[in-house]
Amino acid sequence: MLVLIGRAFNGDGHVRLTRGERFVLAGGDKETHERMQEAAIKFSEKTKGKDVFSPEEIIEKAKEAGMI
After folding, report:
1. Domain span at 47
2. Which pLDDT does position 9 carry in this prediction?
3. Which of these, 41, 7, 12, lies nearest to 26 by C-alpha position?
4. pLDDT tens, 1-16?
5. How many CA atoms lie within 13 A of 53 on its CB side?
6. How far is CA 26 from CA 6, 9, 48, 50, 53, in A?
7. Are 34 and 10 in contact (CB under 8 A)?
8. Alpha-carbon gap, residue 29 to 21, rounded angstroms
9. How is the chain split among helix, strand and coil, in percent rounded to 5?
10. pLDDT at 68
């Protein structure tokens, strides 16, 4: 199963942790964490129904989700 792990280092003193079916996100200030959440949700939607990906497919899906 493909699982996305996101970590941001620009914290503001609050501990933020979000878990989804296919992702775990930690850290970041409010704005950064919200952006990570949106991207992770889009990425999860684009990879739903498939568990094995080539590196090229992962890059393609990340671009489609606005991650890179």
Report:
1. 4-64
2. 93
3. 7
4. 778 899 999 989 999 9
5. 20
6. 6, 9, 22, 24, 24
7. no
8. 22
9. 40, 20, 40
10. 86
Do the beta carbons of residue 46 and residue 64 sit within 8 Å?
A: yes
* 3-class secondary structure, 63: helix
- Which residues in the chain show pLDDT less than 50? none
Looking at residue 3, its pLDDT comes to 84
The pair of structure tokens assigned to 34 is 């919200």
- The count of domains in the chain is 1
What is residue 39's DSSP assignment?
Answer: H
* Token pair recorded at residue 28: 């970041």
pTM, full prediction: 0.82
